[in-house]
Design a protein that fits this description.
The complex is a heterodimer of chains A (365) and B (220). Chain A contains 15 helices and 15 strands. Chain A is an alpha/beta fold and 365 residues long. Chain B has 220 residues and is mainly α. Helix content of chain B is 82%, strand content 0%. Chain B has 9 helices and no strands. Classes of the chains: A alpha/beta (365), B mainly alpha (220). The structure holds adenosine-5'-triphosphate and magnesium ion (MG).
């Protein structure tokens, strides 16, 4: 898949008088990607975000949205085409949740029926009961309001979403729940998201790529694994100790799967062809007709045999899913005192195994 | 030579002169209604206008503050040479009084609207008119309405003085009652005026609660 660039900043700066608040920031965000901007308070994250929809005009450099220079676009149209979740939520207190969600649709003069349907659809998308549509924002908890903030930004189905600390005002548990929901949602909506936070855990959790800002400058851009390998002292201090373990939380087991294993179907004859598959492996895996893993058997056990003796087959350890994080997989291995775990798809197909080795070689690169 | 107790006089007056006090009460209401219309139609846009410009705001609020301290009778003194007597100068005098709270509250109400709400609307692509009508005015409305309420209740009492500039109202009854030592008339006029003022104030207060509830400002 060719990744189209949806948003691009080319050496963008912002001055307030003499103050350089954003300093020559260059970055690009691919279609369908969550790009996280992170940095200490006052480093210019919000300013950078607001320059993208021109709530704040930039002083120099170029900002391209879908390849077009934003200064050449009508600002009102630009903003209506970009979803925006404001820092501190900013739900309008005099409007019902329904009217808050459909605000952009009202601005765009969509018909009433469509607005009603969209409101129902979106409130469910963000996991709130439909009855909440008739409430006012003050009748919702902070976390619920943040969900409505997300629903509101999604109303006009924009391709690009700007989210400024969208989960800033809630307790850590709700926050984690909202992050997971965002990721689940993103699997279906595939928006291009620029996400501002100052929480490193959150950045690792939701970010495909992360940009770290400091004093108006973008000091580094990379994936969670790139970031934790940085040697720069500011970055090391900023991400904190143990960050590498948080980063492990972001890598799916799928990336560490070993799938070139010796596998035989149950009942198949053990001829030389099959045995030649084994290479350096000590075990051979046995699957049934539906590719379900029945277990494994050591090579020494089948020497000279023509059939596999079901009695000698050892059952596999409890499997993990390709979407599980490496952190979870390693945890499971440590708990179960195992050197490897089978990976099984949602449908129950045996995909291969992950081992300490395969994890380590992924991390060390 | 007191022949009847006071309450009898009042009762007799109210019963026998219902036509007269009724029409005076109606004129009084008309004065208030018309001046309130003028005050709202001019005051709200003016308040809006000055909320956009700090220097203009300070100047206008300053001037109105001064006008406000002029006693109503002195204001008539200015107006009579310019406009003569009658309904027109009375309405103008009432409007000058009533417009102050409306302008001030509109301005303050608009200024109080948190920048984050305007920014949220701006960020969603609302244009200036949409921000004004969908965010600023609704959010400022309870404060603006409080100003309008003050203006109406105040003009109710100020309209009593309209009699001095030749406009009929409850002031007429009170004035005639005083001049002719007609106790029944005087007290009836006063009581009617006080009662209607309280009633109008209550009614507006009740409306104001409704407005605040509608606009999500207080717990329902
Ligand atoms: N209108 C303004 N005039 C002058 N300086 C400003 C203005 N707006 C913001 N700044 C300054 O720009 C800097 C960056 O602000 P910005 O809001 O982008 O920070 P941030 O990274 O979003 O911080 P936070 O995490 O606290 O939200 C700050 O130092 C701030 O004081
Ligand atoms: Mg910010």
């Amino acid at each position: 898949m060719v990744e189209a660039i949806e948003v691009e900043l080319q050496s963008v700066s912002k001055f307030y008088g003499e103050d350089k608040v954003v300093d020559a920031v260059s970055l690009h965000v691919n279609q369908g990607e969550i790009f996280v901007l992170i940095g200490p308070s006052g480093c210019g994250k919000t300013t950078t975000l607001k320059m993208i929809n021109q709530l704040i005009p930039h002083t120099s450099g170029r900002i391209l949205v879908r390849g077009k220079d934003v200064t050449e676009l009508d600002p009102v149209e630009l903003r209506r085409s970009i979803g925006y979740v404001i820092q501190y939520i900013g739900l309008l207190p005099h409007l019902t949740i329904r009217d808050n969600i459909t605000f952009v649709l009202q601005l765009k003069k969509y018909n009433k029926k469509m607005q009603r349907e969209r409101a129902m659809e979106l409130i469910e998308t963000v996991g709130l009961p439909v009855s909440y549509l008739d409430r006012h924002p003050r009748e919702l908890s902070g976390g619920q309001q943040q969900r409505v903030g997300v629903a509101r930004a999604l109303a006009a189905d924009p391709e690009i979403l700007l989210m400024d600390e969208p989960f800033g005002a809630v307790d850590p548990i709700t926050r984690e729940q909202l992050q997971l929901e965002l990721l689940r949602l993103q699997e279906t909506i595939k928006k291009t998201i620029i996400f501002v936070t100052h929480d490193m855990q959150e950045a690792f959790k939701v970010g495909d790529r992360i940009g770290i800002m400091r004093g108006g400058r973008l000091v580094t851009i990379g994936t969670a694994m790139d970031i934790v390998r940085e040697r720069d002292e500011f970055i090391r201090n900023f991400i904190g100790q143990g960050a590498i373990f948080s980063a492990l939380d972001t890598i799916p087991a799928a990336r560490a799967i070993i799938d070139d294993l010796p596998i035989v179907q149950e009942g198949a004859a053990l001829d030389d062809d099959v045995l030649s598959l084994t290479g350096d492996w000590e075990n051979i895996f046995i699957v049934d007709g539906q590719r379900r893993c029945l277990g494994y058997i050591s090579l020494s056990e089948i020497k000279g045999q023509r059939k596999i003796d079901r009695e000698k087959v050892t059952a596999c350890p409890p499997p993990c899913r390709p979407g599980d994080s490496l952190k979870k997989v390693i945890e499971e291995m440590l708990w179960g005192n195992r050197a490897w775990l089978p990976v099984v798809s949602e449908e129950g197909y045996f995909l291969g195994i992950v081992s300490f080795q395969s994890c380590a070689s992924l991390l060390v690169g | 030579m007191r022949t009847n107790p006071l309450w009898m006089n009042v009762w007799n007056y109210l019963v026998s002169k219902a036509d007269f006090w009724g029409s005076m009460l109606a004129s009084h209401f008309m004065l208030v209604v018309w001046s309130s219309c003028i005050v709202i139609i001019l005051g709200v846009p003016l308040g809006l206008l000055i909320s956009r410009n700090k220097r203009l705001r300070d100047a206008v609020l300053g001037v109105i503050g001064v006008l406000y301290t002029i006693p109503i009778l002195a204001l008539f003194g200015f107006l009579i040479p310019l406009m003569g007597i009658g309904l027109k100068p009375a309405l103008i005098a009432l409007s000058i009084y009533g417009i102050m709270p409306v302008i001030r509250n509109t301005c303050v109400g608009i200024e109080q609207v948190s920048a984050s709400f305007k920014e949220a609307a701006d960020g969603m692509g609302a244009n200036r008119a949409q921000i004004l009508f969908r965010v600023e005015l609704p959010l400022a409305f309870p404060v603006i309405f409080a100003g309008i309420r003050t203006a109406i209740v105040m003009s109710f009492s100020v309209a009593t003085y309209a009699v001095f500039i030749g406009a009929a109202g409850m002031g007429t009854i009170i004035l005639i009652g005083m001049r002719t030592y007609n106790e029944g008339m005087l007290v009836s006029g006063t009581v009617l005026l006080a009662l209607t003022t309280v009633l109008v104030d209550r009614l507006l207060g009740w409306l104001e609660k409704g407005v605040q509830k509608k606009f999500g400002m207080v717990e329902p």
